[in-house]
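Hi, does anyone understand the following?
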Amino acid sequence: MGELLCLEHVSFSYEGGVEERSALEDCSVSICSGERIAVLGGNGAGKSTFFLLANGVLCPKRGTVFFRGEAVGRKKQELNRLRRGVGLVFQNPDVQILGGTVEEEISFGPMNLGLSRKEVRRRVDGAVEQMNLESLRRRAPQYLSGGEKKRVSIADALAMEPELLLLDEPAASLDPENCRLLERTLETLGERGLALAVSTHDVNFAWRWAQRILAFHDGRLVADRTPEEFFSDAGLLNVCHLEQPLLFRMARAMKICPLPRTAEAFERAVAEKGEKEGEQP
């Protein structure tokens, strides 16, 4: 897998108040094509700041961001190249949505790239199809449900045809049905080769979906591990104020190996374990 994004010793502080507040300190990490990454940590841990730096909304106070091996500075051309390659879906879709209709909203980004009308239409049609928004094309996005707004905000990012998509707590405020729809959407996008990084508080989702865990605490990247390595480290989980996923705990208690990632895999493993134990004399 080729490297898409790389942060080298990146630090950022928000100004204001009596003194600057360090939001991210000495962060070094890279993300490659096709990866599925869960970004974990408590509120204020640095997850959102990491995403804003990775997308070029914020510029580092120290350190360097690279996209496709090229350093990204403060020049408009460099930042636009980063933002085209790395899409960002904000936690609150109302922050992102500006258009009068869903179609106008999705076309906003491609039009700002100076693309031809034909190319803008192709990208909008593709994003609408991917996010199943055909019936909402002419609707005003401000009056859609929370789940529908989330789909529109993801379509916004997809219309830019990024290679990496960052989603900042995309399941926030969604009901269980829309959470399931979101997860199926992420599965589909991953199957199409898009690299995905999802900020979440849901350790059960992280366990069943992610290939890799990035964990932040107090403005620092404290872990870059596989899900099994991360959730096996009780001390690190305590530092990050996180718990082991339910399936992880149950499978470990039952001594099931390899550890299943989904409920269906867990049920199969339990049935197979029962059959083997029944065959023993």
